[in-house]
Structure formats: C-alpha cells, structure tokens
Amino acid sequence: MPRLIANLLVVVAAQLAVIYVGENAFAQVVPGTGTKLTNACDDFEDEAWTYTYNLPKASSNIDKQDRQPAGFSSNYKWAESAFRGTPDFVRRVETPAGGIPGSKGSMAMQTLNSGIPNRTSATFQQDDLIANLAQTVGFLPVGRSPSIVTRVYLPPFDQWEKRTGSTFGFRADCVTIIDKPASAGRGFFRRAGSSKTTEAYWPGMFIQFNSKHDRPGTEDHATILIRSGGRGEDIPGPVIKEPGWWTLGMSFTPDGKVHYYASPGVDDLTQKDYLYSSFPYGYKAMQVNTFFFNIVNQDDGRTWSTRWIVDDPAVYAVN
After folding, report:
1. pTM
2. Between the CA of residue 73 and those of 42, 44, 232, 304, what are the distances in Å?
C-alpha cells in the first residue's frame, strides 16, 4: 500500500506540474477517443466463449467471505467480483436485433441468488462481473484520458423484474488519495494532523426501472441515474420510454473529473450525447483500475433479475 500511494503521488505531481492550469483546464473527452486497447475489449464473437462459475460465489460485502477460486471467462477477460460475487447466469448469446452491424454474439447476465449463498435476504442485492484489466492492460492513470464504452440491450418492459428500482449498473473502479485524520488517542498520546491514504470509489450509471405495478395509472419506463454528484447523490439522467439498444460511456480527464455520456442506438458516442460531469463524492480520480457491470434483484430465492445483454465493451486511452 505505501508503494501504491507513492506511485500515485508521483502521477499527481507530474499532472499538477505539467498540465494543471485551473479547475476548468480540461475539456470533456468523448468516450471512444484515442487508441482502442484491444486486449481489454471483448466482442463475444468467439462461439467457444464460455464462463466458469466456481460456486458458491463470493459475498464478502455481506459476510466477509470471498470463497475462492473466483469465476472467470474462457478468454480471461472477465472475472467474478470477490466483493459481491458473480451473476448466476453469464452466457454468450445471439445479438438481439438492432445491435452493432455484423455482430453475432453478445454477453447475457442475469441473477437469482444475489446475496449470501443458500440464504435469502428479501432485500435488494447485487452481483458484479469485473473486466479483468489487471491482467490485460494494467491500471490506467487519468493523465491518459481513459474512457470506457459499452452497448447495452434493454429488453421489452414486460420482461423486466416487476419492481421499481435499480436493476443494471455500468461502473468504473477508481482510486484517489485522501487525507485521513490521525486517530485521536488520549492524553499525552493524542495525535493531530492527517496522513495520505488511497481511497477506492465506483462512479458509473445505473438503469432504474419504474414499474407500472408500483404506480397505477402510469406506464413502464426506465431512467438512467448517474453516480454521482459531488456529495455522492445520484443525478437523474434521460428517461427511457422505448426499450432497445443504448450506448453508454464514461471518460476520465487529467483533472480527475468523470464525464458521462449516453445515446439510444449503437452508434459511436459524440459530443451531443454528453450528460454530466462531476468529481463524484468530491474525489479527483488518479487512476482507473477497471470497469464492471452490476446486476440487481430482489434476493428472495424465487425472482430472477432482468436479463441484461451487453456487446463490445471497449476501453480507450490517449497515448
């Protein structure tokens, strides 16, 4: 950990000394800008693509049990989260209509038992599927203006889990450095000041379903929620009234700011698809470790989550 902090401080110092000229010094970077890091991308066109589950899965966010070994894909580009565990259904499927021209394969994710294995909680729980960037391209400093793009298929609303709430997440694993107050102590041993420490956080976008079953007289629709504003609050984004393919993207500029983009369809993102920029939780990103997908459901042992399908998740960076 001290070495990681030292390395991050070097990156920060270089950015401040060379390119930082004010709070608004960096323009937004449209996700997809720069070089496509092909080792970190997956198009799911290989018909032999499979996923090994290695159950029981992790649930260390609840009971501190990561239950190794973790699940993984046959191309080693995807891995089970040791924090929340893998979705119960991960499979290569035929690309739904309207997807990327020429695409024949996509990845489907769905979950049933999202909490502690063999135990139900009857509360919303999440499973994660992690892009294995640590093994493919390594960590990405924000000085390279990294960005992430994915296409996601929203099925017809009558196929969604019939509840109002978040159901899908597209998120990044970021690291910053914060000042951690020294422990108070007592009497003559009382300490003042603070020390530098790394802090992980997970900006991204959720898709929330607004079910007509919960709001009589309304129609089913979805909302993109952006996580987050400077205080950690979710920011409402576009309302989605027609399901189908959407393109989502996030970019990270050298000032540590996160930029969010979304557009219906599968075309490349452009400046007109810009939604919002922020320092989530008041943090300035120093590096992007990876990205991942959240699958959320009501952990009752009976109700499957909505089935989510993604295609061509890709990572870019400026050389």
Report:
1. 0.88
2. 11, 11, 33, 22
